[in-house]
């Protein structure tokens, strides 16, 4: 991939429309962004946040439901992530998201997440005001030891996630041009925390009781489809659904051919629509 290929445009959709507001309007949505300071006695952190809502609803209009969205490791909420939020807003939902600490425009050392519980608490604090990755390579015990003394070192080897996550070649270029994407090696402290959280969550799948929909590509090399199957089988939820898409990669909502994206979007929208306020009719 050449330097010209990865040169970042202003927006993921290209030069036109020229502004986010125009892009939102062209897709039946409105949006805004701001910074949120977390309520923390040990020192507040500033998170970059976004919200999206149906266009023309007005301040007093009630959305069909609120959707709280969380991006993945090394990603952010301002690039292709927005496409799904805008789709849901166009369908009548109000969506909220924040860049995780150390990601995107949020404060903190880039891609360093030493404590996921703190990150989750930060997100919950933001969402409240709005009324899984285990590497396939073996982790030597020495990494655990080194991470205690140099947790911010970006030395853990990893494969090119874009090549393994995005199926359509042209879309790989778009993903690579994200100016906020972290493309360095994972930091030791972040890796060890992800491993810890993965182990804990894996041991507590049976405690899940809320309604949920899992969508996963069978060819996903970034996250293991078997883990989604384990969640579905172990969860105590009475209302649970799993959709496994044959041959799809990790980036199902952007990196696949358009017909695949529409299929996944349709399943998500159908699941939400069965469980919330009907769409407003004009």
TrEMBL record:
Pfam family, one: Hydrolase_4
Serine aminopeptidase S33 domain mapped to chain residues: 128-257
Protein name: Serine aminopeptidase S33 domain-containing protein
Domain of life: Eukaryota
PANTHER family: PHOSPHOLIPASE-RELATED
């Amino acid at each position: 991939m050449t330097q010209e290929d990865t040169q970042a445009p202003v927006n993921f959709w290209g030069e036109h429309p020229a502004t986010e507001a125009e892009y939102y309007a062209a897709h039946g949505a409105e949006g805004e962004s701001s910074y949120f300071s977390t309520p923390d006695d040990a020192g507040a952190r500033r998170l970059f946040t976004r919200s999206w809502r149906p266009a023309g609803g007005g301040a007093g209009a009630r959305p069909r439901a609120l959707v709280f969205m969380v991006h993945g490791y090394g990603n952010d909420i301002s690039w292709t992530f927005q496409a799904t939020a805008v789709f849901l807003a166009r369908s009548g939902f109000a969506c909220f998201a924040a860049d995780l600490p150390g990601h995107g425009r949020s404060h903190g050392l880039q891609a360093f997440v030493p404590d996921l519980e703190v990150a989750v608490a930060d997100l919950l604090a933001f969402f409240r005001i709005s009324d899984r990755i285990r590497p396939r390579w073996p982790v030597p015990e020495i990494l655990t030891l080194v991470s205690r003394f140099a947790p911010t070192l970006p030395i853990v080897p990893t494969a090119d996630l874009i090549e393994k996550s995005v199926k359509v070649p042209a879309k790989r270029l778009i993903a690579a041009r994200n100016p906020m994407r972290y493309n360095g090696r994972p930091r030791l402290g972040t890796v060890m925390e992800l491993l810890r959280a993965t182990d804990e969550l894996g041991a507590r799948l049976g405690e899940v009781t809320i309604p949920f929909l899992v969508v996963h590509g069978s060819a996903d090399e970034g996250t293991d489809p078997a883990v989604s199957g384990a969640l579905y089988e172990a969860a105590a939820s009475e209302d649970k659904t799993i959709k496994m898409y044959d041959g799809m990669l990790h980036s199902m909502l952007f990196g696949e051919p358009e017909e695949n994206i529409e299929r996944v979007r349709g399943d998500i929208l159908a699941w939400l629509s069965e469980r919330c306020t009907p769409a407003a009719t004009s």
